[in-house]
Amino acid sequence: MKTLQEWLDWCEQLHPVAIDMGLGRVKAVAERMALRFDCPVITVAGTNGKGSTCAMLEAILLEAGYRTGVYTSPHLVHFEERCRLRGESASAQEFAQAFAEVEAVRGDVSLTYFEFSTLAILHLMAKAALDVVILEVGLGGRLDAVNIVDADCAVITSIDIDHTAILGKDRESIGFEKAGIMRAGRPVIVSDPVPPQSVIDHAAAVGAELWRFGRDFNYSGDKQQWAWAGRERRYSGMAYPALRGANQLINASGVLAALDALRSRIPVTAQAVRNGLALVELPGRFQIVPGEPVLVLDVAHNPHSVAALAANLDAMGFYPNTHAVVGVMADKDLLPMLQRVNPLIDRWYFTDLPLPRAAKGVDLQRTWAAQNTRADASSSVHSGPMAALGAAIEAADPADRIVVFGSFHTVGGVLQNGIPRLHAKHLSP
Question: What is the DSSP secondary structure assignment for residue 13, as one 8-state letter?
């Protein structure tokens, strides 16, 4: 293999199953590679809010002058998005070389696609002379490949029902899996306002330094500005983060708590905090694209994140019609997702996705129809996200709103050719 795409294609068929939780295989190869970091490491786990948390940490630390490394997954359009060094995605050539380094020592250890790519990205970061590393946990926490790294600070964002076949069917079980990223004597920031008891209990059991939202840090605000208070630092009169949505203040609060906990090693100024939050960007998280009609992109793909999406859509004000392009994985708890957002959607465009795990558009439509009580709502099925978006654009009036949500592959399928020019059909000749 020479190119990144050749490596990715090869990794997809290396292991007999796509998801195979456990640290034994990946830890064995990491030891052979002598992977280690000489700088603070922050790991971020949770059901929703991980990507936003990583993006805000990165933005603030870059403004403070630090050389950052960030690992997030999955990607929206290009695999290279998963690893950012000093604010820029690593190149395909750098990735290909890192994959070759993993293969050179792997021996007979069978690795999943995620494990192999995680090792490659950790290798990229370890040799990049960084000041701070931020690692987003892929799935759960306790048995996720990222958890081979002993983080200096752990952040646990919101915890809700998702990936039940792997993590458990209730918040307590899922919380226990997320809590696996905690380390003895090191801070863990829990930004979920009502965390499962399993998270609190695990912190006590391992001797982690627990920071709880509402007890050790909190925020307040009005329509113009917000303030934050932690154990040692306070910030007041701050502009709202550039990432939209009411839930982002909870994520930002956890970010500031993590920076407070690590202040002796990576101090940041109040100006870096303000600038970072003002400049942070993260595609696909309640991303609003101006035009006629307006376009909203959101990777909400479980009941908790769809509830946040519905609240944020409701706060946008009145639109004559809202059109929704939707595609999700077949293992998602679809019914409560549809029920939560259904009152806001007038026309649905269900789409197939190019993955074996994805639900078929016709099955999505059937589930929607079974719970729909709106005589004025309609739906259709499409072969892919761009086809569905094209149908929505054709049907929408300039004053309407189009929402694209669900899987990363749904939003990424729309973004792959750049932001669509929605208003093109409404321009005067």
Answer: T
Model confidence pLDDT, tens digit, residues 208-232: 999 999 999 999 998 899 999 999 8
Architecture of domain 4-279: 3-Layer(aba) Sandwich (3.40)
Taking Cα atoms as reference points, which of 416, 111, 76, 44 lies closest to residue 258? 44
For 348-398, the pLDDT digits (tens) are 999 999 988 899 999 999 999 998 989 999 999 999 999 999 999 999 999
With contact defined as beta carbons under 8 Å apart, do 130 and 68 qualify? yes
Strand partners, 294: 401
Over 238-270, what HEC string results? Answer: ECCCCCCCCCHHHHHHHHHHHHHHCCCCCCCCH
Q: DSSP string spanning 43-104?
A: EEE-SBSHHHHHHHHHHHHHHTT--EEEE--S-SS-GGGGEEETTEEPPHHHHHHHHHHHHH
Q: Once rounded to an integer, what is the mean pLDDT over residues 303-318?
A: 92
Local structure of 349: helix, strand or coil? strand
* AA identity, residue 388: A
User: What is d(CA 420, CA 11) in angstroms, rounded to the nearest whole number?
Assistant: 32
Q: What homologous superfamily does CATH list for 287-426?
A: Mur ligase, C-terminal domain (3.90.190.20)
Q: Which two tokens stand for residue 165?
A: 């076949």
Q: Is the pTM of this model over 0.85?
A: yes
pLDDT band at 163 (very low <50, low <70, confident <90, very high): low
Please report, for the chain, the start and end positions of each structural domain, with discontinuous segments joined by +.
4-279, 287-426
Which residue from 81, 93, 87 is spatially nearest to 5, judged by alpha carbons?
A: 93
pLDDT at 161: 66
pLDDT for the residue 138? 83
Give Cα 411 distance to the centre of its chain.
Answer: 13
* Residue 172 vs residues 138, 153, 175, 302: alpha-carbon distances, Å: 19, 22, 5, 17
**What's the chain's average pLDDT?**
92
